[in-house]
């Protein structure tokens, strides 16, 4: 069956509206648990105010933060999926949905030309919104995830060497979190995404996807990486800074790490913070036109993390 392009556009518009307003339940639970543990008076006050702002935004159907970030899409295509007008048509309606949502929600029109500062007032322009693609074998659906992430600060990159090891990664992450907190370069508490390996551009992509496309509480299937995620989360919450940089222990809601095989001579690492307005929403459009909405992107499938030349669909141990 062929998916009607109108179903794609309607779903993309709907998740644009949801992501702008409704904070995902996994992040809300993470903040509630963090608030129960926080002993810093001002940091605890900020966490309480965050929850109140979320409730008000949902009730009023308006964004909880004036800066609605840079809307972007992650599209996972089932190998058996067929879409009316093809995937050029998908790109076209994703841009249209962004422009409509900017007007209707409304979203702040943040996109400008980097040199001339000209803009169209709809968050659409050259290479905007960004659309990342991945594929899934044996499926006839299309998953569309939108993420509204700030595009200014809360990100860092460093080329480490293999000899720096895990201790070098820890040092880089702690240095970054302290700098972010002192200089107000991130809105804590944040979901921290770490990219390890790959080429420089892949490393940055992995870190952003780790921050934005995994839910709070999700652990990497590699036990060693999962243990490092928890260790970095604990270290981030032990530096003495809490929500919005106040004294406390609520810097990192969760830490997610994604890796890619890299050059033998290096160990690139990136870090990204998905701020207190963690905005994401996903729609799955089935071959029969039915649409399911959820807050877990389910982006990192076993197929996406595959290591071998040939993909085997059977369960691997």
Automatic annotation (TrEMBL):
Entry keyword annotation includes Lyase: yes
Protein keywords: 4Fe-4S, Iron, Iron-sulfur, Lyase, Metal-binding
A Pfam short name: Fumerase
Source taxon at top rank: Bacteria
Gene Ontology MF term list: 4 iron, 4 sulfur cluster binding; lyase activity; metal ion binding
UniProt domain Fe-S hydro-lyase tartrate dehydratase alpha-type catalytic: residue ranges: 11-283
InterPro entries: Class-I_Fumarase/Tartrate_DH, Fe-S_hydro-lyase_TtdA-typ_cat
Family: Belongs to the class-I fumarase family.
PANTHER family: FUMARATE HYDRATASE-RELATED, L(+)-TARTRATE DEHYDRATASE SUBUNIT ALPHA-RELATED
Protein known as: Fumarate hydratase
């Amino acid at each position: 069956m062929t998916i009607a392009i109108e179903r794609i556009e309607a779903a993309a518009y709907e998740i644009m509206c949801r992501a702008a307003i409704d904070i995902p339940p996994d992040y809300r639970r993470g903040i509630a648990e963090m608030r129960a543990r926080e002993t810093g008076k001002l940091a605890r006050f900020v966490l309480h105010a965050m929850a109140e702002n979320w409730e008000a935004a949902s009730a009023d159907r308006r964004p909880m933060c004036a800066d609605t970030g840079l809307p972007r899409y992650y599209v996972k295509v089932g190998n058996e999926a067929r879409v009316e007008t093809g995937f050029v048509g998908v790109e076209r309606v994703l841009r249209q949905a962004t422009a409509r949502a900017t007007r209707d929600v409304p979203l702040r029109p943040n996109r400008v030309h980097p040199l001339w500062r000209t803009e169209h007032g709809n968050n659409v322009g050259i290479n905007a919104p960004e659309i990342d693609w991945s594929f899934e074998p044996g499926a006839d659906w299309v998953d569309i995830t939108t993420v509204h992430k700030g595009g200014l600060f809360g990100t860092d990159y460093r080329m480490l060497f293999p000899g720096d090891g895990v201790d070098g990664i820890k040092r880089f992450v702690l240095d970054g979190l302290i700098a972010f907190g002192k200089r107000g370069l991130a809105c804590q508490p944040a979901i921290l995404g770490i990219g390890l390996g790959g080429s420089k551009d892949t490393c940055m992509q992995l870190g952003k996807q780790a921050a934005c496309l995994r839910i709070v509480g999700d652990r990497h299937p590699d036990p060693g990486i999962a243990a490092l995620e928890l260790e970095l989360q604990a270290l981030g919450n032990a530096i003495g800074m809490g929500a919005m940089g106040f004294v406390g222990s609520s810097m990192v809601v969760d830490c997610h790490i994604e890796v890619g095989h890299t050059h033998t001579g290096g160990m690139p690492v990136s870090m990204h913070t998905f701020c207190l307005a963690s905005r994401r929403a996903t729609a799955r459009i089935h071959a029969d036109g039915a649409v399911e909405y959820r807050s877990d992107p389910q982006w990192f499938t076993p197929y996406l993390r595959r290591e071998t030349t040939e993909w085997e669909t059977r369960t691997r141990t």
